């Protein structure tokens, strides 16, 4: 599909979010394409490294809210959860090039990447509470671990965005670059990794993640059950309805 571009070059599979007019928000069909591509990346011996990138003006605005209303991810087999499970268990190195907004899964996906490079225009946000739902991608576990509890609470309870420099400070990104240079810099880093012995990369990543791999999957399952339920409840209905009607949500009675 053209909204998710995939190509393999020099051992690097690059997946590009390509729906800029809708700020690279992700539909169920795009999640399916991404999940299939990630499975292929794991199985294909030609792929040694995986890269996610968007456009220099926008990485990903999270779930497509209209599509979400039509295709709510109500079961663990929903494409979004399939993608997240496979990302959490993905054995090869994963890099992300982030410029512009990275909202919802646009940020939480990064917890499952090994190296993240950001444009100085990158703006990260996890506004799940503002949408009447709860975190996904094990971000309720991984954000407090990475940022410390209070900064995670600011990001997850208040849903406040944070910029590239703050993301660098908390360790979510490795380096901040001009937005026009991020995608090409990530390709350079990916090629460096692709030239290294894959067996050592796989084992090193496995060892770094082994301590809490089961816990991450367990947290994602628990989040997915809550997320699916909360999507059908009044707070999410009000939040999503307000987004569609381009008005402020009213949670005063919820
Ligand atoms: N779902 C569906 N459509 C979305 C979208 C989303 N998550 N994010 C953006 N769009 C659409 C807008 O509705 C608009 O469509 P239109 O041109 O048909 O009106 C278009 O993309 C451009 O968005 P706009 O808001 O005008 O761009 P912006 O540059 O002012 O702001 C964002 C960019 C990403 C900050 C803003 O679009 C935003 O906050 N989006 C919602 C993010 C969100 O809550 N995601 C869900 C996380 S779970």
Overview in brief:
By secondary structure, the chain is α/β, with parallel strands linked by helices. 47% of the residues lie in helices and 15% in strands. The strands form two sheets. A six-stranded mixed beta sheet has the order 1-2-3-4-6-9, sandwiched between helices.
Describe, in plain words, how this protein is organized in 3D.
The structure is a single chain. The chain is built from eleven helices and nine strands. With 254 residues, the chain is an alpha/beta fold. The protein has a single domain, classed as 2-enoyl-CoA Hydratase, Chain A, domain 1. The strands form two sheets. It has a six-stranded mixed β-sheet with strand order 1-2-3-4-6-9, with helices on both faces. A three-stranded mixed β-sheet has the order 5-7-8. α5 packs across α6. The N and C termini lie far apart (40 Å). The model has no long low-confidence stretch (mean pLDDT 97). Coenzyme A binds at residues 22-23, 25, 61-66, 101, 103-104, 127, 131.
Which properties best describe this structure?
254 residues; 11 helices; binds coenzyme A; single chain; globular; 3-stranded mixed beta sheet
Helix and strand topology:
Blueprint: E1 4-9, E2 12-17, H1 28-43, E3 49-53, H2 65-70, H3 79-88, E4 94-98, E5 101-103, H4 105-108, E6 115-119, E7 123-125, H5 139-147, H6 149-156, E8 162-163, H7 164-170, E9 175-177, H8 179-194, H9 198-210, H10 213-231, H11 234-244
Parallel strand pairs: 2-3, 3-4, 4-6, 5-7, 6-9
Antiparallel strand pairs: 1-2, 7-8
């Amino acid at each position: 599909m053209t909204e998710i571009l995939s190509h393999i070059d020099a051992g690097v599979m690059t997946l590009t979010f390509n729906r800029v007019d809708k700020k690279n928000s992700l539909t169920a069909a795009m999640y399916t394409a991404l999940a299939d591509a990630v499975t292929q990346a794991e199985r294909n011996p030609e792929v040694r490294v995986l890269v996610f990138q968007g456009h220099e003006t926008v990485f990903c605005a999270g779930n497509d809210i209209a599509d979400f209303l039509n295709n709510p991810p109500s079961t663990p087999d929903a494409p979004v959860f399939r993608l997240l499970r496979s990302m959490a268990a993905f054995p090869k190195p994963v890099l992300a090039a982030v410029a512009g907004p990275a909202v919802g899964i646009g940020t939480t996906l990064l917890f499952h990447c090994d190296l993240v490079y950001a444009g100085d225009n990158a703006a990260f946000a996890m506004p799940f509470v503002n949408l009447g739902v709860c975190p996904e991608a094990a971000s309720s576990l991984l954000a407090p671990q990475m940022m410390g509890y209070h900064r995670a609470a600011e990001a997850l309870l208040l849903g406040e965005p944070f910029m590239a420099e703050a993301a660098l400070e908390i360790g979510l990104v490795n380096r901040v670059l001009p937005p026009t240079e991020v995608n090409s810099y990530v390709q350079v880093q990916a090629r460096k990794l692709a030239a290294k012995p894959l067996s050592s990369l796989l084992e090193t990543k496995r060892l770094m993640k082994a301590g809490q791999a089961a816990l991450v999957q367990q947290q994602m399952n628990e989040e997915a059950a809550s997320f699916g339920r909360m999507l059908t409840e009044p707070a999410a209905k009000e939040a999503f309805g307000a987004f569609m009607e381009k008005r402020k949500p009213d949670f005063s009675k919820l």
